[in-house]
């Protein structure tokens, strides 16, 4: 390290003078941490000696040392808040320093730390090429780094580091404010918003996030002011009433700020955010220094902007409240009604729930317009309130459906009939209406909340099936099956979203040789408590509800990905069979989904076989033929599953142009014990061979069944004799064996 000439010393004195504001923004107990990485011990000593006693931005320098890139990696794994790395280029290898740069940026993700390369071999790494290829901030030869120039480099690097950290803190604060505007919970939303205010405010002032925010939201006289956010030493005060804060200086400061409705800068900084109508928020932060006029101007602008955001958060919370009420009829909506049923009903004895559905209301809207329809609903609401009395709860739970809850004597078919007995006069028009009603006696039911509404809906549906304008009470026998199906469907949706559904694979083999030729992808559902739900229970529900579309795509993509993995492991001729349903066939995006799955999985359609049931193939022949033609163009082969259980004709079978017939497991089990089963199995094999199709049997469990099927001329099979359905990792191990 060369000694600085006199001119450099003059420059050093100028640079070493602390600046007006920036030097005070960092706490005295946080020096700038500099890491020196160099295999020359003299460089470490000379650098530390040259910078001895100097400060940057008013703070001292602390040096950490590593004699190699490997040692630096170990140190970086445990150290944080490094401002600058002084890094030698050539150490244990010619590019050790440059590789350490990549490690710092790419693997550790330390983008704020400033990196200064120092080299004793200036011709080794050309400066322009190095700066272009590596994320470094300065490049110097050791010979040109005099004391003053080294200090100048460090000062510039530290200032850059401080600015990047401040920008990052600003970004985090802004993200929290934006996030709060989408929060669905009033208190959580307000708290997150206020927390973002503290974070951004402290970032703007260059201090650690430490402070608290109190708020008066509704502006009502006597409303309690509460602490809605707190950080640092104040974190224990969150959600307390301001009046209960025992730190007198904090409590009095915030009370004075709200009372005087202005920012306070003496004895600490307290900011006021006012919106009128009595709403206000105050934030107290420990700056630790006096703020100049520029700082105060910045904070005034900050407060103006934040006040608008505070208003939006409060208004959003009001909208959240309105989400529980129907604005047209001024009644509770379905959400509030479910809450009433779930939480507030203490004694169900003698209480009845009814769903009253206005018959053919859509015809009224179509004939007279929606404005007239709204007036009809208002007239019905008025008469219901008159007939049911004040002790009956009422809500609008659907577009033309009312929920009522009250005593048996009031909520009953006779009362509903009385409501609709006389015509309604709406906009000068007489209108005779009727309503169908489903009722539940709560004392006879163990259901609560939305399950009670489901019971009433089941009774309402049964009443509609019998006669419009009638009433029907719910019974356990009526609802047990429907409720179980509803619960199962609800659980299926949740299970799919939470990745409880997974795919297993059952190998398919050549019956003569035992050679593995492929596998069938089978969907399984294991609930959160570890129970398995049988596919014949949940797959029909998925088909009826439309959930089979995303589930089917999940199975197809998973099967394609697994097929690709098996192919890379050396199983080039492996065939993957995937079941598809009629609901998928009818979906307009089915063919596009198949094409995307092939492309994304990196497999060829000729390695995939789609299985359709015989009844599905016969259900809508025109549609099936059209879709099968598109499937064939993608290269897929097609098998008819459960063949022999339906009633297909030979001419239809010829038109389908399928590749494989699959004998149902029931006929395999009966083939040796029943003449009918044996006849059907023989028929399927003969038909398949006569049409030039491959025949595969499923459900083979014994060697006798295998030999019998071989004797019939069956080509392929699957079943527990060969392997049970297994997860992907077990399939790969099984295939290797």
Please describe what this structure looks like.
This protein has 737 residues and is α/β, with parallel strands linked by helices. Helix content is 47%, strand content 20%. It has 26 helices and 28 strands. The protein has an 8-stranded mixed barrel, surrounded by 5 helices. Strands 2-3-1-4-5-6 form a 6-stranded mixed sheet, with helices on both faces. It has a 5-stranded mixed sheet with strand order 14-15-13-18-19, sandwiched between helices. Helix 1 runs parallel beside helix 6. The protein starts with 5 loop residues before the first helix and ends with a helix. Mean pLDDT is 83; it is low at 1-28 and 180-187.
Topology:
Layout: H1 6-15, E1 32-37, H2 41-50, E2 55-56, E3 59-66, H3 69-78, E4 84-88, H4 96-107, E5 114-119, H5 127-133, E6 138-141, H6 147-181, H7 186-205, E7 211-216, E8 226-231, H8 248-260, E9 269-276, E10 279-285, H9 293-322, E11 325-326, E12 331-332, H10 334-344, E13 351-358, H11 361-368, H12 370-388, E14 393-396, E15 401-407, H13 413-419, E16 424-426, E17 429-431, E18 435-441, H14 450-466, E19 471-473, H15 476-497, E20 501-510, E21 516-526, E22 532-533, H16 535-545, H17 548-568, E23 575-579, H18 582-586, H19 590-601, E24 608-613, H20 614-619, H21 621-633, E25 637-643, H22 650-656, E26 660-663, H23 665-670, H24 675-690, E27 694-698, H25 703-712, E28 716-718, H26 728-736
Parallel strand pairs: 1-3, 1-4, 4-5, 5-6, 18-19, 21-23, 23-24, 24-25, 25-26, 26-27, 27-28
Antiparallel strand pairs: 2-3, 7-8, 7-10, 9-10, 11-12, 13-15, 13-18, 14-15, 16-17, 20-21, 20-28, 21-22
Helix pairs in contact: 1-6, 3-4, 6-7, 7-9, 11-12, 12-13, 14-15, 15-16, 17-19
């Amino acid at each position: 390290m060369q000694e600085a000439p006199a001119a450099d010393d003059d420059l050093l004195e100028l640079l070493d003078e602390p600046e007006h504001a920036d030097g005070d923004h960092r706490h005295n107990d946080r020096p700038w941490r500099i890491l020196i990485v160099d295999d020359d011990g003299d460089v470490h000593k000379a650098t530390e000696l040259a910078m001895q006693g100097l400060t940057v931005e008013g703070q001292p320098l602390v040096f950490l040392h590593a004699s190699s890139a490997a040692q630096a990696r170990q140190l970086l794994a445990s150290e944080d808040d490094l401002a600058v790395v002084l890094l030698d280029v050539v150490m244990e290898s010619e590019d050790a320093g440059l590789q350490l740069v990549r490690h710092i940026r790419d693997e550790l993700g330390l983008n704020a730390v400033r990196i200064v390369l120092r080299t004793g071999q200036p011709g080794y790494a050309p400066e322009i090429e190095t700066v272009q290829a590596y994320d470094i901030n300065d490049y110097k030869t050791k010979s040109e780094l005099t004391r003053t120039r080294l200090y100048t480099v460090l000062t510039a690097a530290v200032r850059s580091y401080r600015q990047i950290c401040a920008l990052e803190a600003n970004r985090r604060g802004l993200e929290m404010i934006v996030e709060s505007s989408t929060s669905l919970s009033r208190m959580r939303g307000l708290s997150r918003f206020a927390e973002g205010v503290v974070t951004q405010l402290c970032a703007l002032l260059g201090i650690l996030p430490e402070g608290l925010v109190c708020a008066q939201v509704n502006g009502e006289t006597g409303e309690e002011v509460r602490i809605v956010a707190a950080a640092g030493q104040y974190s224990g005060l969150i959600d307390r009433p301001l009046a209960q804060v025992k730190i007198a200086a904090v409590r009095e400061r915030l009370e004075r700020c709200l009372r005087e409705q202005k920012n306070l800068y003496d004895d600490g900084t307290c900011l006021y955010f006012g919106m009128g109508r009595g709403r206000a928020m105050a934030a107290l932060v420990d700056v630790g220094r006096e703020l100049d006029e520029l700082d105060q101007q910045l904070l005034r602008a900050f407060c103006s902007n934040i006040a608008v955001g505070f208003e939006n958060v409060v208004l959003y919370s009001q909208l959240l409240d309105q989400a529980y009420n129907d604005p047209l009829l001024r009644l509770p909506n379905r959400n509030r009604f479910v809450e009433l049923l779930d939480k507030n009903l203490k004694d169900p004895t003698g209480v009845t729930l009814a769903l009253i559905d206005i018959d053919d209301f859509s015809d009224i809207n179509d004939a007279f317009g929606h404005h007239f329809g709204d007036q009809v609903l208002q007239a019905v609401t008025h008469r219901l309130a008159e007939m049911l009395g004040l002790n009956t709860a009422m809500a609008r739970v659907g577009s033309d459906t009312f929920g009522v809850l009250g005593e048996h004597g009031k909520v009953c078919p006779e009362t509903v009939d009385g409501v609709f007995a006389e015509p309604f006069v709406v906009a000068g028009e007489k209108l005779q209406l009727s309503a169908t009603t489903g009722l539940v006696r709560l004392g006879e039911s163990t259901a609560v909340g939305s399950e009670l509404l489901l019971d009433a809906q089941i009774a309402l549906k049964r009443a509609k099936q019998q006669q419009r304008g009638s009433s029907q009470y719910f019974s356990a026998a009526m609802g047990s099956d429907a409720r179980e199906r509803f619960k199962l469907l609800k659980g299926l949706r949740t299970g799919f979203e939470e990745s409880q559904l997974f795919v297993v694979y059952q190998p398919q083999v050549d019956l003569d040789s035992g050679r593995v030729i492929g596998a069938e992808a089978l969907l399984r559902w294991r609930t959160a408590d570890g129970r398995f739900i049988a596919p014949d229970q949940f797959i029909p529900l998925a088909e009826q509800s439309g959930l089979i579309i995303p589930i089917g795509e999940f199975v197809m993509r998973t099967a394609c990905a697994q097929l690709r993995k098996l192919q890379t492991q050396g199983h080039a001729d492996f065939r993957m069979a995937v079941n598809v349903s009629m609901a998928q066939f009818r979906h307009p995006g089915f063919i596009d989904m198949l094409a995307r799955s092939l492309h994304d999985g990196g497999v060829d359609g000729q390695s995939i076989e789609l299985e359709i049931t015989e009844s599905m193939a016969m259900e809508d022949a025109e549609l099936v033929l059209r879709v099968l033609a598109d499937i064939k163009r993608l290269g897929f082969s097609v098998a008819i599953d459960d063949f022999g259980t339906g009633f297909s004709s030979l001419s239809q079978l010829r038109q389908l142009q399928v590749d494989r017939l699959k004998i149902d497991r029931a006929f395999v089990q009966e083939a040796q014990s029943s003449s009918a089963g044996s006849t059907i199995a023989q028929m399927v094999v003969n038909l398949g061979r006569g049409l030039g199709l491959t025949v595969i049997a499923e459900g083979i469990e014994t060697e006798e069944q295998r030999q019998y099927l071989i004797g019939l001329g069956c080509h392929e099979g699957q079943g527990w004799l060969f392997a049970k359905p297994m997860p992907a990792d077990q399939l790969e191990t099984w295939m290797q064996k």
